[in-house]
Design a protein that fits this description.
Mean pLDDT: 96
CATH architecture: 2-Layer Sandwich
Low-confidence stretches: none
Structural class: alpha+beta
Order of helices and strands: EHEEHHE
Distance between the termini: 7 Å
Helix content: 25-40%
């Protein structure tokens, strides 16, 4: 079964304290769904239309688990803590293997 991935692209961070509150809650919220962080940070280099903003790539055992983690009450609470502290988008995609 192919794995599922969250690709979280930050466009801006306006409140680092809200981001920190989110960062404390999100790992515990996604762990029951088998989440594993592959990448977290600011790109060292960008090309083409790349933004030099924070990016996070999380791996899940399946696409279904990735979607379920996002929709879980615990993750929704983490999002509430983030509130308007950042502008970002999350893309959930199925792996090729």
């Amino acid at each position: 079964m192919p794995k599922g991935y969250w690709v979280t692209c930050y466009h801006s961070i306006s409140d680092p304290q809200k981001l920190a509150a989110y960062a404390k809650l999100a790992p515990a919220a996604t762990a029951p769904f088998g989440a594993r962080y592959l990448v977290r940070g600011t790109p060292s280099t960008t090309f083409e239309a790349g933004r030099k903003e924070r990016i996070v790539i999380s791996e899940f055992p399946s696409l279904e688990k990735a979607v379920a983690a996002y929709n879980s009450p615990a993750y929704q609470a983490a999002l509430k803590a983030l509130g308007d502290g950042a502008v970002r988008d999350i893309r959930i995609i199925e792996g090729t293997e």
